[in-house]
Amino acid sequence: MAKKNDAVPGDDDELTRNAALIAARLAALGIALDGRESPDDLATLEEAVERFEAAVQSRGGDLMVDEAPPGKSPQPDDPHFALPMRHPHESIVAYVERLAVATDGVRHHRPLS
C-alpha cells in the first residue's frame, strides 16, 4: 500500500495537465489568472464558477448569452447573471467569496420579464 508521500509515476503530469485545462477554461471565461495559482486554487475557482453557472441556469439564464468572450464586456439578458470578473491583485479566497455572494444573489433573484 502506497503512503500519502509516495508519488505515483505520472501523477504530476496528470495534475499539471488538469491544472492547465482548468486555467484555460477560466481564462476563456475572462477570469484573470497570473500563473501563480496552484492546482488547488484552480480547482477551487472552477468549483465556485460551476456553482455560479448552475445557479444562473436554475434561474433560466443562458450561459452562452450571459458570459462574454475574453476581452469583451458581458451583455447578459439579466445583469445578475453576468459572471463577476476577478479584480487585479484580488486573492483567490477573496474572489471565491465574492463569487459565493453573487451565486447566492442569483439564487434569490427574481428573473426579469
Verbal overview:
The chain has 113 residues and is mainly α. Helix content is 52%, strand content 0%. The protein has 4 helices and no strands. Helix 1 (11-28) packs across helix 2 and helix 2 runs parallel beside helix 4. The radius of gyration is 16 Å and the shape is elongated. The mean pLDDT is 82.
Write the layout of secondary structure elements.
Layout: H1 11-28, H2 39-58, H3 63-66, H4 92-108
Helix pairs in contact: 1-2, 2-4
**Mean pLDDT over the full residue set:** 82
Strand content: under 5%
Q: Give the helix proportion (percent range).
A: 40-55%
Instruction: Please state the CA-atom Rg, rounded to the nearest Å.
Output: 16 Å
**Residue runs with pLDDT of under 50 for 5 or more positions:** none
Largest sheet: none
Question: What is the helix/strand order?
Answer: HHHH
Task: Give the number of DSSP strands.
Answer: 0
